[in-house]
Write a structure and sequence with these properties.
With 454 residues, this protein is an alpha/beta fold. It is 40% helix and 23% strand. The structure holds flavin-adenine dinucleotide. Flavin-adenine dinucleotide binds next to α1, β2, β3, β9 and α9.
């Protein structure tokens, strides 16, 4: 064990899991986090969004022995329940097998479990309520130096390696890329989101399908609600940031009431205080970030949203962030960290770039396509094909959510499957046309034409 000094900026999901890995490898880890200690009472204001944990995240948690405590705090989701505008409910299973389910977990619960585990190691320490404001990224010969703001004034901290795990709007990333021939693209979705709670209620209403993700689709507004273990749902309403019915205009009780009365009447019935919740909760913003490089001379590396923030519509941001940590650990088997970090970027970036595309496309799917009969027919066909040809056909969603097949490989395989199906259908149609033509000619020529061998 080399026992190097590692500074982790950001104690979110990726930062906390990375700290566990570095600690297990015998390095000395210092975590610096902007927010108060999430393990303290009342941290985070008692509100949190829920995340859908799928196979990649499950595997990454299992590797550090945290799967059981996380599953104990998570609610299973067997599929999605689509709330149609006419009040009809459609259930769409997540997979063709019983075990193909997702788990809904409160982000804050997961964060607390990960951070508590990291801080069990004697070689991990943490400072909370401190914000990274600057980074001198160092070089092969010189350590990187971070500058933080804290209640007691600014301070500097250096390390052998700085891990930028400070989320989608990463300050480490900005400083890492400064002055380098870097590629940086940020796409801000013109929609934002607000979280609200749907309390547990008597059976017979929408909460009678507790083990599902609930979706109220719509081109002009979308609600997604995750189940909790106590029977309540944590919902997120997505709306345009500007325009007629948008976060910019929905600022009065009347306007919010009108939105839910007309667009989501069943939500209005289920959540008597929806207007108060809507007006008092902050609006979040969503970005896709594609950037490169993710690392510098073995001295700085980005992980999770800091490296590759994606829209949340494929439910893979956290899962890919946790998967990053597992891959980074494998790469660190190479003692030459400059090469190890380059290998990490080479292994991950092509796949997270594909995930970014898939997540952008899924915004349209959740908003409108999930409710269309054609989409439903395609989903059913996908599931039937995967049951009939389990070795040859795996829906893209299944590969992304229920396996750890790297994202770009999953997309390539899905395209091959569809091409084969299109070719097969074309060939079948041609065969049918030719057979039909031959039969028609046969009939026209009479029962014993000269070409008839029977
Ligand atoms: C509405 C919504 C729904 C989502 N649903 C899902 C889902 O179902 N499934 C899924 O897999 N993913 C989902 N995601 C994505 C998921 O939340 C993120 O991908 C995940 O949290 C990324 O983890 P992270 O540790 O990289 O970043 P974060 O969780 O953002 O953690 C970053 C940490 O860094 C700290 N920090 C920031 N700046 C500084 C600084 N300058 N100095 C010090 N500390 C700093 C922050 O306080 C924070 O603790 C969703 C996201 C949203 C917004």
């Amino acid at each position: 064990m080399s026992g190097r000094r590692v500074l982790v900026a950001g104690a979110g999901l990726a930062g906390s899991l990375a700290a566990i890995h570095f600690a297990q490898l015998g390095h000395r880890v210092e975590i610096h986090e902007r927010r108060p200690d999430p393990r303290g009472a009342g941290a985070g204001g008692g509100r949190s969004i829920n995340l859908g944990l799928s196979q990649r995240g499950i595997r990454a948690l299992d590797q550090v022995g945290l799967l059981d405590p996380v599953l104990a705090a998570a609610a299973p989701m067997r599929g999605r329940v689509i709330h149609q505008r006419d009040g009809e409910l459609d259930f769409q299973p997540y997979g063709s097998h019983e075990d193909q389910i997702l788990r809904s977990v409160l982000r804050d619960d997961l964060n607390r479990i990960l951070l508590a585990k990291a801080l069990e190691y004697p070689n991990v320490s943490a400072r909370f309520g401190v914000t990274l404001t600057d980074l001198d990224r160092g070089s092969a010969a010189e350590e990187p130096v971070c500058t933080f703001d804290s209640a007691s004034g600014p301070y500097h901290a250096s390390a052998d390696l700085v891990v930028g795990a400070d989320g989608a709007f990463s300050a480490v990333r900005t400083r890492l890329l400064r002055g380098l021939p870097a590629d940086f693209r940020q796409r801000v979705l013109p929609w934002g989101y607000k979280e609200f709670a749907i309390a547990a209620g008597p059976s017979g209403d929408v909460r009678s399908s507790p083990d599902a993700l609930h979706v109220w689709p719509g081109d002009d507004g979308l609600i997604v609600a995750h189940p909790n273990v106590n029977g309540s749902l944590t919902a997120t309403v997505f709306l345009p940031l500007s325009g007629e019915q948008s976060f910019a205009t929905l600022t009065t009780e009347d306007s919010v009431r009108a939105l839910f009365d007309t667009r989501f009447p069943d939500v209005r019935r289920l959540v008597p205080d929806i207007v108060e919740q809507f007006l008092s909760h902050p609006t979040g913003h969503l970005v896709t970030v594609r950037s490169s490089p993710w690392q510098h001379e073995g001295r700085v590396v980005l992980i999770g949203d800091a490296a590759h923030a994606v829209y949340p519509f494929y439910g893979q941001g956290m899962n890919s962030a946790l998967e990053d940590c597992a891959v980074l650990r494998e790469c660190l088997a190479n003692d030459d960290w400059a090469e190890a970090l380059r290998a990490f970027e080479r292994r991950r970036k092509p796949h997270t770039d594909v995930l970014a595309d898939l997540s952008e496309e899924n915004f349209d799917e959740l908003r409108s396509r999930v409710a269309s009969p054609l989409f439903l027919a395609r989903k059913k066909a996908d599931l039937v094909l995967s049951r009939v040809f389990p070795k040859r056909w795996m829906p893209l969603y299944t590969m992304v959510s229920h396996t750890t097949i790297p994202y770009a490989d999953a997309l390539r395989r899905a395209r091959r499957q569809h091409a084969a199906l299109a070719w097969g259908s074309g060939a079948a149609a041609l065969a049918l046309a030719l057979t039909g033509g031959a039969l028609a000619r046969g009939k026209a020529a009479g029962p014993h034409s000269p070409g008839d061998r029977s």
